[in-house]
Amino acid sequence: MKMKTILAAGAMSVAAIAANNAHAGAVIDGIKAKGFVQCGVNTGLPGFSAANSEGKWEGLDVDVCRAVAAALLGDAEKVQYTPMTAAQRFTALQSGEIDILSRNTTWTLTRDAKLGLTFGGVNYYDGQGFLVPKALGVSHATELDGATVCVEPGTTTELNLADYFRAKGMSFEPVVIENINETTAAFFAGRCDVYTTDASGLASVRQTMAPNPDDYVILPEIISKEPLGPAVAQGDDQWADLVRWSLMAMIEAEELGVTSENVDDMKKSENPSIQRLLGVSPGMGEALGVDEEWAYRIVKQVGNYGESYKANVTAKLGLERGLNALWTDGGLQYALPVR
Amino acid sequence: MSKTQQAPGGVRSKGLADYLNDENVRAVIYQIIAIGLVILAGWYLVSNTLDNLERQNISTGFGFLDLEASFGISESMIDYTPKSTYATALLVGLLNTVKVAFLGIVLCTIIGTIFGIARLSSNWIVRKLAAIYVETFRNIPVLLQLFFWYAIIPGAFPAARNALEPIPDVLMTNRGIYIPVPVADNAYEFMGIAAILALIIIYFVKKWADKRLDATGQPFPIVWASVGIFAGLVLVAYLAGGAPTAMDIPELKGFNIRGGYNISPEFLAVLIGLTVYTSTYVAEVVRSGIEAVPSGQWEAADSLGLKRSVSLRKIILPQSMRVAIPPLTNQYLNLTKNSSLAVAVGYPDLVSVSNTTMNQTGQAIEAISIYMAVYLGLSLITSLFMNWFNNKMALVER
């Protein structure tokens, strides 16, 4: 009977809907099924994530995604990039539009605890600064009372800016534009006296977008701590672990002197730490749920942290290691033990 | 519902099959199923969302509205500092949206009407210029127009130090236009009260004048009388309040121009972009409205010896209004909704502030539901007002 068919169809759709709820571990399964990692990056921040002249994405943040793809899928090229603005990024991650967010994102308590994110470590220690035209005649941030400031919305930068001026009893007028390219265009058109973001971003903007970089100067004051790192959505702990340890493997490789050049020779090393990292003595890959060559592929295809930094940040922006030197060289980069 | 056919004598009791074969019963069953499926889909979406939020440890609820916003907003019609709450920040955004939408609606109506009438002009150049204006701006996406104006405005004016001063004390810079405003004084409050009083008096004078016109056929110069009453009362209030002359004049201090009222480039870009874009549609609405009135109406008015301006005002426009108001309402709604594109050029409208709020608190669903509710509310208010206006203007058909 027709009626029965309709009722049965109704009941079945209820059952189908009930069974369709997402389950834990979904992110890794999803990535394996589609065959690539969907990575949220900056719309254009040379040195961190920007498309080069051939349309290929490159940068320090991009390398984190490539490392994860190398570890999980065996190929660092199996990444698809979604360029996003600061304001879009967390929603995209929460909704599952991207698997990993590697977009110079500051690790803060609120984001970690309230936004449902898990940070995978710090791939760049940064701090917020100010970029001004030389013609403004300002040499310290304390002289900026009454200035008009260009800033991207939805960033810690926007909050630090308000905090800093409040603490110093100074006033400012924000100009808040969503897209970084529009924001910097407004700054270089003279809409603002000051452009503020993380110091690395200022260097990047000054170097690559200013009509004449020498007309602009970064003020000496650094007004905040900005530990930048990759983030994933909570709910798939195995995926979060894999992201964290892919980054750690890059730093550990640098600490141990393993580079993309010598990684094959290093497989013969007697050093037990190197043997564990490169999977010569097994166990690490199994613990992470990938094969034992995971870290070998990261170093071989992407390089260690120092190589990535040199090829991207130093080469494009001329920034030295500074805080991002290894802890053994007086910096803050410190790999958690891979064992 | 019609009664079901009963077997003669009512001997046979009805079985389930009889009910299921009854058309009316079936109709009810289908509707119950349809509603059920809609509810099911809704329940699925909501429960799935809540599930996902819980699994990812994302907090929900509107409690965040009472927290300190701690971000700055460049322009605000009410007191706002980074110390204010998120609720205040959203209110600032809402007021900015209303400001640009209201001014946009007023300006696009004026400009659109002018171009709409110009398209019907008997002068070839005027007609063609109006057509070019309409066809150009109607066919470029409004977002691109906003980018265009925002690229032009800061680029076209000099930096604050070399500000243009076309009128004394009015400064034009790449940071916007600064105009002097009077320093707050009691006299301005008196003037506001006087203005309201004048409007009430004008309303009654107009009623009296209409009555006299109907009774005796004598026209009364209501426009001049109104201007006189309004200006007179306001001037009296100004003088009675002590005739204050102190002005807040913009001048260069430090990096920026301080004082006066600043019309920001972001606001200008959004206002000009929306006004120009929507005015082209309004022009078409006005043109079609006028063309919809049969030419016999013009001829009839002519034969009564009415002046052309009088026949336009008294005969043609009231009839074209009837045709024009409903599509005009659509354009007003479009303009209000398009104002959400302001986020692209950095005007702190509701969407811009909500986006920032969403990002700082992670309350995406809450923030989006707030602004969806607000746009729905604004659109419904506009619709209600326009429907009321439409009913008032519509000709009563006999």
Describe this structure in words.
The complex is a heterodimer of chains A (339) and B (398). By secondary structure, chain A is an alpha/beta fold. Chain A contains 14 helices and 13 strands. Chain A has 2 domains: 26-125 and 227-323, D-Maltodextrin-Binding Protein, domain 2, CATH 3.40.190; 128-224, D-Maltodextrin-Binding Protein, domain 2 (3-Layer(aba) Sandwich). The longest helix of chain B has 33 residues, at 23-55. Chain B has 12 helices and 8 strands. At the A-B interface, α1, α4, α5, α6 and β10 of A face α2, α5 and α11 of B. Chain A: This is Amino acid ABC transporter substrate-binding protein.
Low-confidence segments of chain A, given as residue ranges, are 11-23
Report the sheet with the most strands of chain A, covering strand number, pairing sense and barrel closure.
Answer: 6 strands, mixed
Strand order of the biggest β-sheet of chain B: 1-2-3-8
The separation of the N and C termini of chain A measures 65 Å
Largest interface: A-B, 56 and 51 residues
In helices, the fraction of residues of chain B equals 55-70%
Q: From N to C, what is the helix and strand string of chain B?
A: HHHHHEEEEHHEEEEHHHHH
Q: How many separate domains make up the residues of chain B?
A: 2
Q: What's the shape of chain A?
A: globular
* Low-pLDDT runs of chain B: none
What CATH calls the topology of the largest domain in chain A is D-Maltodextrin-Binding Protein, domain 2
- The level 1 CATH classification of the largest domain in chain A is Alpha Beta
